[in-house]
Amino acid sequence: MSIWIQLILFAVGLLAAGWVFRFAGQKATSNAPFFRDMPTGVAFGYVLGAVCLIWAVWTYYVARTVDPSIANKYFFFRVAVDGFILFGIAAWVFRLLGRTVGTAASRKLFRSMPLTASFGVMMILIYAFVAIFAGAIAPYGQEEILGSANVVPGGNPAMGGNPDFPLGTDQIGRDILSRLIYGAQNTVGIAFATTCLAFFIGASLGFLAAVLQGWLDQLLSRGVDVLMAIPSLIFALLLMTIASAWAGSEKGLLTFYMVIIIAVIDSTRVFRLARAVGLNIVVMDYIEAAKLRGEGLGYLMFREILPNAVAPLLAEFGLRFCFVFLTIASLSFLGVGIQPPLADWGTMVRDLAQFINFAAFAPQVATAPLLAAGAIALLTVAVNFVVDWMLHASSGLKE
């Protein structure tokens, strides 16, 4: 029997189970509105969710078996579930502490914060702490080559690990834990600086276009349209290839070029938002009053328009940071981003990618490149959780 026939039979079985679930609910509750008005698709969704939950619990139980061959097969699933549970508990405890410790304003903020947002805030604070104090936290230097190469993560000598290197070492003997910590300082720090520069350029020009309008608005808007018509990653890769030839052996200069290129490309999105928000603000009465008082252009842009545009710009800052962060990691993976010997998560994924080949029979070895990839994904998810919460709060919507 082919896989497609099996899938069709499985879907038909779930539909039948959904109909039975709805019918049984109607009989058991004397045709209560919840089951009486339930569409077939919703009943199917409940049954599918129950099947997925049962499968996940059973697979997690099997992943905990003492048979090494079976345990290795579900190693990454077990780690993912353990991490999900651990992060969920940590986020709940962090939110509970925030509701009981701190100022009245912070406690009120945590009381209105969903669990996903508390997870995002917690992870952002952890990443910021690690990035700021990387030099004091990392057990070794990011460039330091140690005696042992290709040490397996986990620290178990029986499996090729070493307690001195809990996350293992790379091909030339550098400690992966130390490079992950320094990667937070380099990747996240450079992405944050690039996002700030992009917002300064885009917001300034967007507010300028909104206030002056006329030919300057048309010139800036059409220029932004041209830049946005080109896919950003391809455009950045093309410009970085050119910048690599200009920088030569000056790796620090290439990083500077990367910051400028990505900031200019991403400032186009910020320009669009700042101009749209600015056009809605410049027609307000207080702007006209400021003009009648003789206030200058800088006062109108940064003292009148900017304070009233903080909410949408702050939410956009989180989204822009994610895009900039992923762009830098992508460029580093392709070899034209942050240059060695600086530790960078994108470069680490590229350098350790060959260990993925050992995932079938030695999953601990395959975790080496996934550590850097997981660090990238975790920060991206955390920032998006916080941005979603901020957008929901600023929109005035209620649960």
Could you explain how this protein is built, in words?
- By secondary structure, this protein is mainly alpha-helical.
- The model has no long low-confidence stretch (mean pLDDT 84).
- It is built from 17 helices and no strands.
- Helix 7 packs across helix 9 (176-212) and helix 9 crosses helix 15 (310-333).
- 75% of the residues lie in helices and 0% in strands.
Helix content: over 70%
The SS-based structural class is: mainly alpha
Number of strands: 0
Shape descriptor reads globular
Low-confidence stretches are: none
Most strands sheet? none
Task: Compute the CA-based radius of gyration.
Answer: 26 Å
Element pattern in H and E: HHHHHHHHHHHHHHHHH
Strand content: under 5%
Q: Would you tell me the overall average pLDDT?
A: 84
Number of contiguous helices: 17
Distance between the first and last residues' Cα: 48 Å
Oligomer: single chain
Question: Can you describe this structure in just a few lines?
Answer:
By secondary structure, the protein is mostly helical. The protein is built from 17 helices and no strands.
